[in-house]
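Feature request, filed as a ticket because there's no other form

It would be nice if the structure record came with a short human-readable summary line next to the tokens. Right now we just get the raw output. Example of a typical job, pasted below so the devs can see what we mean:
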Amino acid sequence: MKPLTVCVTVCSGLLLLSWSSEGQSNIMKTDFIQAMFEEYDSTLPPNFESNESVKVNVSLYVNSIDSISEQSMDFTMNAFVEQEWCDPRLIFYEMITDEYFELDSKFMVKVWVPDLYFTNEKRADFHSVTVPNKMLHLYNNGCIRYRLRVSLTASCPMNLQKYPMDTQICSLYLQSFAFTRKTIEFLWKVDKAVVTGSSVELPQFTLVDTVTKGTCNENIGGSDFTCIQVDFNLRRNTGFYMIQIYIPTIMIVLLSWVSFWLSIDAVPARISLGILTVLTMTTQKGAAISSLPRVSYVKAIDVWMAVCLAFVFAALLEFAFVNVMQRREQEFDDCSLGDNKMNGSVNNRRFSGGKREAQRVDNVSRIIFPMIFFAFCIIYAIVYMV
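Raw output as currently delivered:
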């Protein structure tokens, strides 16, 4: 009955207005649209009577990815979501020569649109400056192109075991809220399903690629509900962390080794240097992990900071060891001097021998500490960077 009503109404208008001028052709379009939507029910899907699912082709244009937060484990993006489907109730039947109509956003409430929503969305907003950022084109074959602009924040669970040399996959799930596959089915557009703008640039990450999937890893409601997924593969940029974390901590470790070249008798200088490097490394460690969530597993940055702290602390302990060696020899000689004042030359030899042993420990530390540390750096790079 619906196509018949449209035909009768529009044909009558064509007969009555055939004498009109070219400027009155807009009236014919108006009458055609009014007749088309006279009995149109926007609350029912297009294939409600035939029990066939509506195929909705979805595409995504990523305008910007604003932020990715490890603390809250989410990402914020601005995108254009475009949907295309066909509604047999809106076919022109060659009653009008226009290929398609560009409808105002106020008119969209009269047209049935899919109930697409983002499953892992935390917050979302439509843009309405200066008018609602929505577009609807109605084609002569009954197909509809519907586009809208949205800003959303979606959850992105992250594995930070290799932080900051990690790669993350942030997914976006698009699903029907109320209709099962019996009524509606979402499909990615064959050509250019997901396009990222040329201006998309992230301060901490590089967008490697995007992967579309016809099914979702997490489908709320089960497999009966249609769901599609897009994965954003992100690789973290390590330049910031090299400048702010790795190079400063390496310099602190190297600074702690200066005490090996200082005299054993320079107790205030070596103690001050050891305590300063330990405290500086502790402060650096706290600043490096302050912006991270309190996860229970060990991260790559934790391993690096713990080993660097261990090296500077070991350098402090090394001086304590050599200082104790020297003092024990000196105390032994002082006791021997009280028993036999005639053996002064022997005592001096013992004292100098103890100092030589302490100096030998310093000489060995100058070689062993750098070798172990640089070996650790190589192993660290192989494990976490490869």
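Something like this underneath would help us a lot:
Residues 138 and 308 are 65 Å apart (CA to CA).
The chain has six helices and twelve strands.
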